[in-house]
């Protein structure tokens, strides 16, 4: 078989993700030393925006969480009238602007262990306009910054941005809530074993993503039917694909529904196991194919691997990091990834020198990404 057996991507109404001009800050002055502090919010599981400038209109460069230890390097008042703190994270060494009412100053250097369990954090009430996002998912167990190779980053940008079918804009799309799966048709016992194995692999590789079987209220349906019946179940089906998926996302680029088609004729059991893994994974937001790595499940040509390659695992981990948000453009993703790399390099250099990083830490320059 030479036909690529999969793919997808629904055309949805898009809302431009343009970055608003940043505010001109009236600096209060850079202190001669870093002041220890902790992020705080109304709810212990809130996500706190870290921005490129002291304004809610500025782009978000990362996300902090309640209890994260930081050092306040500068304070400023933006055009929005709010006071902002330029903070550097103790653990990751990333830096950016956070609303000052979300920063709790400490009288002495922090001695609490890292990470802090969210259930042990006492937070004071904050105004409703606080620059936070309430979340229902528990705080990730592992908050350390990842380390990715340039090869993995390049592959991530290739596979994640847009979809093969339809005129979808090149932005990040991912699920934000539980994925509830319903099965239709005639799956074999091996199909069901494969599906369970893929679900376990995905949950083991991602932070906060839950996949579960739900026959009553699904948002992802898998049809095990002959290829000749595919269009009956999915009108957007593209012919000559024995595996196919089609996703739907909202104006915020959050995926909320998907349909997967797996042919019960014309393919071997091994090929079906490959298609189950490929289609389910790509319906999570890794929608593009590539001709770069034959052992990857995203390979454009016909292959039948039934396990993730190491670079496939890296892409799944990367997509479901909380810092990678739905709607991000290539340049915004590249900025986050470059910060990770810079922070890791800084941390390694600091350990070698046995000293702290300089207090005038600034955000790294983001290289242009070209296709």
Strand content: 15-25%
The helicity comes to 10-25%
Largest sheet: 6 strands, antiparallel
- Structural class, from helix and strand content? alpha/beta
Radius of gyration from the CA trace?
A: 23 Å
Shape call: elongated
Number of strands: 15
The number of helices is: 6
Roughly how many Å apart are the termini?
29 Å
* Elements, N to C (H/E): EEEEEEEEEHEEHEEHEEHHH
Low-confidence stretches: 1-32, 108-129, 134-143, 349-371
Mean model confidence by pLDDT: 75
Strands, helices and their partners?
Layout lengths: L25 E4 L5 E5 L7 E5 L8 E6 L3 E9 L5 E7 L5 E5 L3 E3 L26 E2 L16 H11 L13 E2 L3 E7 L3 H17 L5 E3 L6 E6 L4 H4 L9 E7 L4 E10 L5 H14 L27 H10 L10 H24 L18
Parallel strand pairs: 10-15, 11-12, 11-13, 13-15
Antiparallel strand pairs: 1-5, 2-5, 2-8, 3-4, 3-9, 5-6, 6-7, 14-15
Task: Describe what this molecule looks like in 3D.
The strands form 3 sheets. Strands 1, 2, 5, 6, 7 and 8 form a 6-stranded antiparallel sheet that branches. This protein is 22% helix and 22% strand. The chain contains 6 helices and 15 strands. The protein is elongated, with a radius of gyration of 23 Å. With 371 residues, it is an alpha/beta fold.
């Amino acid at each position: 078989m030479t036909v690529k057996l999969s793919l997808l991507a629904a055309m949805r109404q898009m809302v431009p993700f343009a970055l608003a001009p940043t505010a001109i800050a009236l600096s209060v002055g850079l202190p001669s030393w870093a002041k220890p502090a902790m992020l705080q919010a109304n709810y212990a599981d809130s996500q706190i925006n870290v921005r490129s400038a002291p304004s809610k209109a500025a782009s978000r460069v990362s996300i902090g969480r309640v209890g994260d230890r930081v050092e306040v390097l500068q304070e400023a008042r933006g055009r929005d009238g709010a006071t902002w703190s330029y903070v550097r994270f103790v653990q990751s060494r990333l830096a950016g602007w956070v609303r000052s009412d979300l920063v709790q100053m400490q009288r002495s250097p922090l001695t609490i262990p890292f990470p802090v369990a969210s259930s042990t954090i006492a937070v004071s009430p904050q105004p409703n306009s606080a620059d936070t996002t309430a979340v229902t998912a528990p705080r990730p167990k592992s908050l350390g910054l990842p380390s990715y190779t340039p090869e993995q980053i390049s592959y991530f940008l290739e596979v994640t941005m847009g979809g093969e079918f339809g005129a979808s804009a090149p932005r990040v799309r991912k699920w934000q809530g539980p994925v509830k799966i319903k099965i239709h048709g005639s799956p074999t016992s091996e199909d069901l074993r494969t599906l369970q194995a893929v679900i376990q692999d995905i949950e083991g590789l991602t932070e906060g993503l839950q996949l579960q079987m739900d026959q009553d209220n699904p948002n992802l349906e898998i049809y095990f039917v002959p290829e000749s019946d595919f269009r009956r179940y999915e009108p957007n089906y593209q012919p000559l694909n024995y595996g196919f998926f089609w996703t739907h996302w909202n104006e915020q680029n959050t995926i909320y529904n998907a349909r997967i088609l797996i042919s019960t004729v014309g393919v071997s059991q091994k090929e079906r196991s490959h298609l189950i893994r490929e289609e389910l994974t790509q319906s999570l937001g890794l929608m593009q194919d590539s001709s770069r790595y034959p052992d990857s499940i995203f390979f454009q040509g016909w292959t039948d691997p039934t396990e993730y390659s190491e670079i496939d695992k890296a892409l799944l981990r990367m997509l479901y990091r909380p810092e990678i948000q739905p709607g991000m453009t290539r340049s915004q993703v590249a900025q986050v990834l470059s910060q990770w790399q810079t922070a890791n390099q800084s941390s390694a250099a600091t350990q070698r020198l046995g000293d702290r990083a300089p207090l005038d830490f600034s955000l790294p320059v983001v290289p242009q990404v070209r296709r």
